[in-house]
Amino acid sequence: MDVTASSLSPRRVTKQIAVGSVLVGGNAPVSVQSMTTTKTANVEGTLEQIYALAANGADIVRCTCNEQEAAEGLAQIVPRSPVPIVADIHFHVEMALAALEAGVNGLRLNPGNLRKPEEIKLVASEARDRGVPIRIGVNAGSLHPAIYEKFGGATPEALVESARLELAYFEEVGFDDVKISVKASSVATMIAAYRLASETFDHPLHLGVTEAGPPPGGLVKGTAGIATLLAEGIGDTIRYSLTADPVEEARAGRQLLEALGLRERKSLDLIACPSCGRAEVDVIKVASEAQAALANRNLPIQIAVMGCVVNGPGEARHADLGIAAGKKRGHLFIRGEIIRVVKEDEMVQALVEEAEKLVAEGVEARLAARDVNAQKEADADRAELLTLKGSDANNSSARIAQIRRRTEEEGGHK
Ligand code: SF4
Q1: Which residues make beta-bridge pairs with 14?
Q2: Same domain for 169 and 99?
Q3: Which residue minimizes the CA distance to atom 6 of ligand 1?
């Protein structure tokens, strides 16, 4: 069965805010965020990265605003950016005010680093007057020392308390246009903190595992934390924090939301069987070649690469398109129906050509254009393979018998 948004816990409806043109919270789609790694003062370099992030799935991009030159850069970047820009502020109230002056669509304040109540309230008043939202971005690694001491560490309760105190300052000046994050590099702490935040606040939550590290470990940690919460209906916007080209963060965010059925498919979903004793080709090689050939084609479909024609088309019948390997030939199928049989060395090329046609013409048209002899040829290949290898190509019956014998022998020796 396909996993879709309807299979997840109902999404918790939060108060909606607008980060420029992107709505966050309420019933708005969960959005993807990333952050530039260029110096913000480098306007052209930063814009180039922002365009790359937007093209790969980022709905909102954050840039650091750590010096006057960065704020001046933001004033040029914001009007030319294809997506809303959020300024990341740490220690200096002046930078928050300069970023607002530059016209940013949102601010991120770290309560652990910008600590003076008067300064916090000043920024909130200025943001209120300009209609700019703020993310209260609590981070376990830079928690306010007083809170750290009170809770004996960066516990989930401590992270939520930090956000609550910041929110109280904002409320003193009548500002509530807020989203909240309570990130930690420990996945377990982060999950517990967001669960508690979700019970405590009705503001939208920005999910992330901070300092997750380089892929693949960073991707695993980010996914473990973010997907767990999204499956529970918690979270309105997400960011993977990877030590990698930020384009990887945007792609991962988008792919996660598509995989969970929370965003419409825009990109290719390539699935492949793990291969086994039945495989008639090197599945890893064919899948990698297919991935490389299909990359950057923007085909919003699911494509399967399967190692054998005996089980492949059936196991991947939910895929829009697929190829399964048989006796030096590949069986091309659409939604499990064989449409063409091609030579083994033409499999990838045939897959790419059919993918393009499928997206352009649709399933019905491509099924109607199938080779009328394909099913018969495929049945013959399949029957021949079954005769050659039998229905137990992995020799599992013999293995089971062997295990049983060993267990009985060990039992007898007791
Ligand atoms: S049975 Fe065929 S499709 Fe399934 S894992 Fe093995 S090779 Fe792949």
Answers
A1: none
A2: yes
A3: 276
Distance CA 387, CA 95 (A): 74
Average pLDDT over residues 15-38: 97
- pLDDT given at position 393: 56
Q: Cα of 396 to ligand 1 centre, how many Å?
A: 14
276 Cβ below 6 A of ligand 1: yes
When pLDDT is cut at 50, 70 and 90, the band that residue 282 belongs to is: confident
Q: Which two tokens stand for residue 350?
A: 């045939």
Computed over every residue of the chain, the mean pLDDT equals 92
* Count of domains observed in the chain: 2
Q: How far apart are CA 337 and CA 285, in angstroms?
A: 24
Task: Give distance in angstroms: CA of 275 to centre of ligand 1.
Answer: 5
d(CA 160, CA 182): 7
- Residue closest via CA to ligand 1's atom 5 equals 275
pLDDT in tens, 53-89: 999 999 999 999 999 999 999 999 999 999 999 999 9
How many angstroms separate the CA atoms of 42 and 47, rounded?
A: 9
223 and 322, same domain (yes or no): no
Do 335 and 241 have their domain in common?
no
Answer yes or no: do 221 and 338 share one domain. no
Angle made by CA atoms 130, 134, 135, in degrees to the nearest 5: 170
Of 270, 369, 387, 280, whose CA–CA distance to 330 is shortest? 280
3-class DSSP assignment, residue 132: coil
Q: What pLDDT is recorded for position 298?
A: 82
**Do 17 and 150 reside in the same domain of the chain?**
yes
Is the pLDDT at 388 greater than 80? The verdict is no
Give the C-alpha distances (Å, rounded to integers) separating 167 from 110, 197, 199, 205, 360.
Answer: 12, 12, 15, 13, 50
- Residue of minimum CA distance from atom 3 in ligand 1: 312
131 CB under 6 A from ligand 1?
A: no
Q: How many angstroms is it from 230 CA to the middle of ligand 1?
A: 31
Average pLDDT (182-197) is: 98
Note the pLDDT tens digit of each residue in 33-55: 999 999 999 999 999 999 999 99
Q: Containing H/E element for 312?
A: helix 312-315
Residue range 335-379, pLDDT digits in tens: 999 999 999 999 999 999 999 999 999 999 999 999 999 999 999
Range of the domain at 367: 269-389
For residues 245 and 302, membership in a common domain is answered with no
